[in-house]
Structure prediction request, 107 residues.
Amino acid sequence: MPSFRAILRISGLRPGNAPESVLATAVETLGSIHLVEANQLDVVRGVPQISLRFTVQAARYDDENRQACNAGASVRHAVESVAVTGPVTVTRRIRGKWVPISAVAGP
Prediction:
């Protein structure tokens, strides 16, 4: 099954939400549509970001990428209810490297 990663920067919490609700919301949302293999919270240059590794159902190459991009958009939309975010970046694992979907051409 193709492996993808969604990365989302977090600018701040919305009032009344605990920090742990950010990652929990992301995992719950993504897990409702795809298998979440791993998740983590990092601080990159002083900015928190969450990363979720997941798989999509095997299909045509472009359809797999579309599924992954839709999943990333769903995660961002859900997390926006508890935190202020930036754009989501979706990458695909190709020959041991994570490649942004926009840079991925057909096989």
